[in-house]
User: Which sequence fits this backbone?
């Protein structure tokens, strides 16, 4: 868990360097190529480490407590009225949120 925190922090800093390098390239600064290259190389290395960590991890069983429960994940093969009502409530909440975000005035 601690190693994931370190990798996430390093990835965030590398992403910031990539964005900075992209800006510098657009502005035709002489250090833009170096910043972009360094950031992308660090991110590539982190992706390789993540891949190795995932390959070494044990597969999780379906329905393990580490996986979040969602209304769709809770639904069984045969729909029940309770599942349909819960899904309808979730869709209504999502619709309200999206209406607030994208309302045209």
Assistant:
């Amino acid at each position: 868990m601690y190693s994931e925190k370190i990798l996430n922090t390093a990835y965030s800093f590398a992403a910031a360097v990539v964005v900075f390098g992209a800006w510098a390239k657009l502005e035709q600064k002489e250090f833009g190529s170096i910043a972009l290259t360094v950031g992308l190389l660090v991110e590539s290395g982190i992706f390789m480490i993540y891949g190795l960590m995932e390959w070494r991890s044990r597969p999780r069983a379906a329905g393990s407590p580490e996986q979040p429960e969602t209304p769709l994940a809770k639904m069984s093969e045969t729909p029940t009225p309770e599942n349909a009502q819960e899904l309808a409530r979730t869709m209504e909440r999502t619709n309200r949120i999206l209406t607030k975000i994208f309302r045209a005035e």
About this structure: The mean pLDDT is 78. The helical segments are 2-26, 32-56, 71-74, 81-102.
